Amino acid sequence: MAQTPTGTALTELTRQVRQLAGLLDAAGDQLAAPCGQTGTRAAVLACADPQPQTVAAVARHLGLTRQSVQRTADLLVADGLAEYRPNPEHRRAHLLGLTPAGQRTLTALEITQEAWANRVSADLNEQELLRAAELLAQLTHRLRAGRGRAVSRDRAESG
């Protein structure tokens, strides 16, 4: 089957997003390093603010495995930046919340990230950035809804 024009465009977008994701991960690590954190640790802290979340909810939000977020959360708890709190809706799935030290660290990280975002976006068009963000949100929704399976059901059933 030949790829459609939109399929080709999505393939190119995917290549660009993967490159961008790698660069954003590296930038996140550089931005978080002065606070003694990594980009992933900063992202998990941000997910636990302002409302504590389960590790599974943080993992879904970040598109990471629950196990990797659990390891990161455990490290944040061990460092005194986060704590596990009782979850009134689930006995075993505790909520991850920030400690006062975690809140101070997150605030410092956010200040650094805001300055970085302002520098990187200085000569870009706000409306184009918002349209790009909306398109990525639509693709995320489709993939989470199962439309991004590697093999379609029709093809799997006929093969």
From TrEMBL:
The keyword Electron transport does not apply. Pfam families: MarR_2 (PF12802). The keyword DNA-binding applies. Residues 10-145 form the HTH marR-type domain. SMART domains: HTH_MARR (SM00347). One of its GO terms (biological process) is response to stress. InterPro entries: HTH_MarR-typ (IPR000835), MarR/SlyA-like (IPR039422), WH-like_DNA-bd_sf (IPR036388), WH_DNA-bd_sf (IPR036390). It comes from the Bacteria. GO terms for molecular function: DNA binding; DNA-binding transcription factor activity. Coiled coil: none annotated. Keywords: DNA-binding. Signal peptide: none annotated. This is MarR family transcriptional regulator. It comes from Deinococcus radiopugnans ATCC 19172.
